[in-house]
Amino acid sequence: MARAGVFICHCGSNIASVIDVEQVAKSAEQMTGVVYAATNKYACSISGQEMMKQAIIDHQLDRLVIASCTPRMHETTFRKMLGKTSVNPYMLEVANIREQCSWVHTDKEKATAKAIDLVRMSLAKVLKNQPLFTSSIPVCKKCLVIGGGIAGIQAALDIADGGYEVTLVEREPSLGGKMVMLDKTFPTLDCSACISTPKMAEVGAHPRIKLMSSCEVSAVSGYIGNFEVTIKQNPRYVDHDICTGCGLCEEKCPTKLKSSFDQGLGQRKAIYKLFPQAVPAKPVIDAQHCTKLTKDKCGVCAKVCPLGCINFADQESYTTDTFGAIILATGYQLIDWGSHYPEYGGGAYADVISGLQFERLVNASGPTEGKIKRPSDGAQPKSVAIIKCVGSRDVAKAHGYCSRACCMYAAKHAHQTIEKIAGAQVYIFYIDVRTPGKAYEEFYDRTREDGAVYIRGRVSKIYEENGKLICKGEDTLIGKQVTVEVDLVVLETAMEPAANSGQTAALAGVSADKDGWLTEAHPKLRPVETQSAGVFLCGTAQGPKDIPDTVAQASAAAAKVLGLLAKDELETSPMISAVDTSKCSGCRFCEQVCPVKAISMIDIPSIYNGQKVKRTVAQVNSGLCSGCGACSAACRTGCIDLLGFTNKQILEEVDALWQ
Amino acid sequence: MAITDNTNFEPKILAFCCNWCTYTGADLAGLNRMKYPDNIRIIRLPCSGRVNPQFILRAFQKGYDGVLVCGCHPGDCHYTSGNYFTRRRFLLMKRLLEFAGIERERFQARWISGSEAGKFRDTILKVTEEIRALGPNHRMKEADIYD
How big is the CA angle at A75 (ends A71 and A76), to the nearest 5 degrees? Predict the structure, then answer.
């Protein structure tokens, strides 16, 4: 016979002021299976727990119902308490009589009746509970970082410095991401490449970091501590094991193309390094534009290469490796503003450029060697209009969110223009100026003192007239239309999640929000974890942010990974699916509905008509199963059940209510 | 059956709620001290996809006047795809129940996230009134068979 104990918590007056707890205890005492019922001022307190522990001994209880706050609050607390007693921690049910009873009802009589119902329901369930036991899984002490921008670099370095192996996968031929394209970083104006390239070099040289450039993640299986990841190596056509990066091939290649790194403002060859300080510092061939690969002509690079590294027959290859943790640092891209803003010329005017193009123009290692020149005629612009929130905070045209970094880099662009071009006139069109950050507001103030003219309002149209760009807009502070005539327009465009970041994240079981930003487990308290255990995120993959925030978040993700990898074994939840193989017909329905691929089929020996035969049945991988119960609802023979939420337990709950 | 006045009738409604969304939303409604009728009893499940059609039949058999299945918004399932199975299963189940003469209001599904406490309260208010207007469920209640 079951010996259940029922404990009703007062929660101070939170419960007791609405529910007659003594009445609930009295009713509980009459219920079948209950040998002891009592109330307690605060069940979760040390004294409350001691009282329950004592009652377990005094009344030889073998299971408990605690009627208190939501199980989401203290179920774990009570389970831990039971871990120190003779009662199995899973022989417990919590009746939610606070959040779902005393706090939402005012009629004392009705609330008390409902509380008794809830206790009866939990009791019915606990009478069908079985002791459950946690098991443990080993942890592979290696981390995969996806994305080689500043977020991925920082996270990889922190983890590798912490003593664990890291594999860093980058889609581009080099590390660096967006940060290395920038000229100077606000508000300190230190050179972006000068602070990021040493970190890139450190990654390249780190004994515990395996850098995989031109690579993409193509499949993820497994679970926390044991992810099995397939990585696709895109063909480079250059053997990086032999190549010394001498640069001869690049020099002799006759095909000139627009450089994506320079945002189309500069040129590169068909065999190229992304930029001079690229890591790895070795070239790759752009297969779409190389004439040898497209038309079977040329092949100059192979002729000049002193080491014979060029391999035109290179093909994509796949490798599989095991990791204990995964960090998603897939970053952002800028909005294709041309398709959203035809009124700004939609890309037809060469002198309407994006903020990132301006970064390349003003960068000493950029296509103009740091001289601000109009892309159309190479002339120095005397007047510049900077337009903020292009694609951000504009639900009608593009995105509703704020891209966060633009207010500050717009101020920086204004500052740099005024500094580099004597007498330059700079107009900044804005909706609001948002400068939350250390020394940010001061930087904005300084830009205004430099002479930048801030106009509050959006620009409605840009057109060309007599070699000038005319920006028509409204100054909403004076309520008048304004027209400014400038030589160059810089659009501070919205950040968007990097192309395919959603697909990559989905491989690891991480979802994205309506705008495509990856979703953290909790916006405040679990900002770098995801709903997928063992998968973490950082940087702009999670949402628009500036460099300091990105780096801070990357280190936070690294700290979480270090905490995980420091463990030799992980405890797994025992509330998972279990198969009764005697009833399983091997129909594979469960296999199809399982979201984590925890179910597979095995053949087991069986006897049929006196003959030894093999029968196919389902089996559950306890490390993978997340305990959702989809399989048990789909099972036609009812052989697969979710421990802790079995069919029997739930049906008992249904039956018990409202008797 | 005589026409009855349902104003004093208190319906019994059972809600199967996903632990990650609606159950949390119901907790938040409590935290915000929102008020709603006490006609509802909630059974906590790890996922709305855990709801076996058998549970719903049993609820009507035992005399519940209405059954709610609540899960995460499509696309937001904690387990990626559970609520999609719920949605398909719900539509089939609903057709079966309607065929058996159960009014459509008696069996409903809702997507309520953990932050939508107001939506949870409004849903309970609305569903309770809808079912109150229908009166008691006699159609499938087992006791009625022997009455």
Answer: 140
